[in-house]
Each structure stands twice: as C-alpha cells, then as structure tokens.
C-alpha cells in the first residue's frame, strides 16, 4: 500500500501539494488527472524517488519494484529488441552472470536463476510487446537512433512494461500511439497484476483501464471510485451541491454582516453582534464552484461550398516507387464526417497527406471544387511554428487584414489570454504549441478539415472543447485519431484503410476492435478479409450470425440494464427530494425557537434521504460493475 500523509511538495516557488493525503491499495489501477501544471508528473517523480518531500510523510513498501516510463530516450546504436529487453534488469544481470561465470558452480547458479526468472521467455515477451505497440518484425533489429521521437517514446513504454514490477508509473502512455496500439495497451494493462498509476487525457482509455480516479486540484488529492465516467458524474453532483451551499452561505454571511453593522454600536445588542461576528469568523467559506473550461472556440467555416469538395480517381498513393494504396477512388462532399481506421502502416497518414497535397499522387487524378478550403492539422505543424514569434504575430501573418483585438479575442478561446497572446512561443509546452497549431487551422476558415492525431499533447479540457467545436463545424471532416471519445462524438462514418484498399467500414469502434482482435492470415499472400469479422479459429463469421449473437447478448443483459435504470431513477428522485429539504433548511426563520419541531423534522428527513441515497449509489455501482464484467 502507498500512503501519503499530509504531504507538501514545492517546485521552486510554486506549491503543488499542501498537506495532501492519499491511500492507494495494492492492485488498484488509478488514473491521475488534473489541469496542466498542477503537478501530476512531479508527483510521479516523488513516487519514483527522484524528489524529496517538503512536508508530511510518504510510505511505499521497501521491497516494491517500481517501473516507470521515461519521457526521453537518447539516440543509441542498440537494437529496438535489445532496448526493450533492457527493461528487465534482473534478466540482464543473470545474462551477464552466465557469460562471466568462472566455473561450473557459478554457471549452475546463474542457470538456476534464469529458470526461476523464466528468462528464456524474455526475448519472446519483448517481441510480443513491440508487436503490440506497432513495431514490425523488420524493426526489431533497427537501431534506436533510426526511429523518430514518437517511436522512441514507444520503445520507452515497451521497456517499462518489460520490467517485472509491483508499481507501474505511466505518464501519458497513449500520447504517441495510434488507435490499434492504444487498444492493445488497454488490454495489456487490464491484465497487469500490480498497482498501476497512470496519467492520461484519453477519457475512453481511462474508462477502459482505471478502477479509481485521483484528481489533483488546488494542491489536494481527491480519490474517486470507478472510472472517468463515474468521476464526472460524482464530481458534477458535488459541484452542484457545493454551489448550492456556497450560495446559501453567502446569504447567511450577508445577513450576519448587516446585523453586525446595524447593532455593533448599540449596548443592548452588542453581545449578539459579537456572537454573530464570531460565527462569521468560524464559518468555513466554501469556494464557488468553477466548472467552466478555460477553452471555448469554434472552427469558422468558409462561406461557400463546392460539391464534391475533393475527389480522387484511379489514384495510386505512396512514396517514390512504393505504392501503398493503388487504384483509389473516393469523393468528399460537404457534410461528410469520416473517421479513418486501419492497422499501423496501412496508409492512413499517406492518404491524408495526399489529400492535402503534402505528397504528390503517383498516378491518377486529384480534383477539387472551386470553393474548397482545406484546414490541415498534423504533428509536423508544431515543428513548423515560428518559435521566435508570438501567437498573435503568427495569426497576423496568416491574415494581415485582421485587427489586433480580433486576433486576441480569437486566441483567448484557445487559452492564450491577455499578454499570453503576445509572448514568444519558444518556451511554450507541447500542449500549448498544439493548441496554437489548431488555432492556426481554425483561423483560416476551412470548409474541409483534415486532422491527423489532433489530440496529442492536449489535456481533457482542451479535448472536450475540440470535440464541441468539431460537432458544430458545418463543413466536411476527415480525421485519424486514437481518441475514441473524439471519434464517437464527431464522425458519422468510418473508412477502413487496409490491404491496399480504402472502403467504408460496416460497423462502429467496437466492431473495429473485434476486427483487429480476430484479424488473421487467410491467404498465402498474407491478405486478410477487410471489413469482415473472423473468429478465433480463423473461420469467417457471417454478419447475420454476428448480429444474432449480439441480440442474444443484449437480451441476456437486459435485466441488469433494467436494474441499473431503476437505480438511476431512484437516485434522481432521492437527489431531488434531498435538494428540496436542503433548500428548506436554508430558510433562516426555521432556526427560531418556535420552529424547533419543524427543524428537527427536516433534519431527520435529510439524514434519512442521505442514507437511502448512499445505499442506492452503492447498489448502482455494484450493478454497473456486474454489467461491465458481463460485457
């Protein structure tokens, strides 16, 4: 068990934790969330022994093995496979012992150690990890220095997963993963037997892995049971109650202050005035609930539209002599909202770059409408930003006719408020640069948005703002993203890019997950069946049979869903009744001696409702867990 007791932690002059307490039990899978800069990564560094406390106590079992995911990796001549295996330091020690054994006795000792460690399976496990994270077989022997920054981060993740551990610390593990690798990692972490603490801004990933949420906010650590969806519901209820209590309290504060001001000078009332003044001093003021996101923006759309906006005819896509997607035919029209799916390396980014003319067609024809305006976002946009300029200057260069106030108002929606819009962007964080790159895309009023992993480096608040902006965008959207929540909320159809084809995918993200899980080799050429689900034995599953099985599953789970719905309705009713009672308790006249019986009756009713609500909430959690495990 990990225990933080009245912990205080500072970095420079900034206080990140102030007398914060938290208890983490063995085997829990906890997502650490909170605003950027709140101290999440610093807390990880503390748990990893890289920092010391400024106050309080931290207890971690002395024998616990702690694995963590490094955020940087130096260029190295080591192969990807060796680099991943390096994460298992015990294996490397045993390996060195076998190599350097001076006699048969030492060799026997180290061979026994290798058996106990199951070391002969270590290289196999490392290959499986790397495959799961998207590395091809040919990549195993490539040098680390030959990989790009994002792929090196994947190697760091593989190294952390390779280490046998009791506590696993992962800081934004999905940030450089595609959807397929994200789904694989989610499944791996579900099976991890130790204690997991991870930082992520991907709410669907958190929902799939976490059984508790720790919210780092205002220098405190608050533990919530359940996944991110449960956290949102519980916190929303708390904030609503907090706001109600705050408003009632402010009414009472005003009454006390008015009484003191009126009667402090009167001898007959002086004692009562002093009593109320002490009450005011004792009262713990409740901070108003601030739930508004700092980000609020939209994607302005170019006023005119062409139909189609963009078309490819008999097009071959790829690089140099390498054709990834031959003979492609597609058309994008106004209102199209498309999510691209497909395994790593199948050609999703190649398709996007070709649509944007970042790379030329190898053969075929690309045509676009007269009024087409593309807004393209990809990771290289961050690298191409002029870091010696301010955000305001960058937007002014794009549209010189825009006024300074118009630019500053626009940047404010992306979190660059006041003079922040005028600051040179060189020291900005990755998240801030990503926000600015999105602002540049939106600033040009596109009517076709082409987005390649737009959520990398963005926190949950900004991702939610991006989701809302895309929902309200009237133009066409083509997007690649590993953020399932963003895809579910913003696209209407999916195109599958696989086996050299681009075709409509008949299903949703759950169907795609199944497609990936059961994708098998069906022909000597290594081609599988795009768009068709297959079972574990490799036989094609008939679509009608699949729908029948899904219907049976829905029927089997229907009683649980009814119980859950009944519990939810009961909770809503109790919450409404409790709110009514607490509103009545806010009436100051109720506390007069003549109304003592009425007060007691309401207090009894309040206690009864709170007890019933707690029971129903526990029942709801139990049914939710049962339903989740059954699914």
TrEMBL record:
InterPro entries: AAA+_ATPase, ABC_tran_C, ABC_tran_Xtn, ABC_transporter-like_ATP-bd, ABC_transporter-like_CS, ABCF, P-loop_NTPase, Val-tRNA_synth_C_sf. Residues 550-619 form a coiled coil. Gene3D superfamilies: P-loop containing nucleotide triphosphate hydrolases, Valyl-tRNA synthetase, C-terminal domain. Signal peptide: none annotated. The keyword Nucleotide-binding applies. It comes from the Bacteria. CDD domains: ABCF_EF-3 (cd03221). Residues 2-243, 310-524 form the ABC transporter domain. Keywords: ATP-binding, Coiled coil, Nucleotide-binding, Repeat. Pfam families: ABC_tran, ABC_tran_CTD, ABC_tran_Xtn. GO terms for molecular function: ATP binding; ATP hydrolysis activity; DNA binding. Belongs to the ABC transporter superfamily. ABCF family. YheS subfamily. This is Probable ATP-binding protein YheS. It comes from Parathalassolituus penaei.
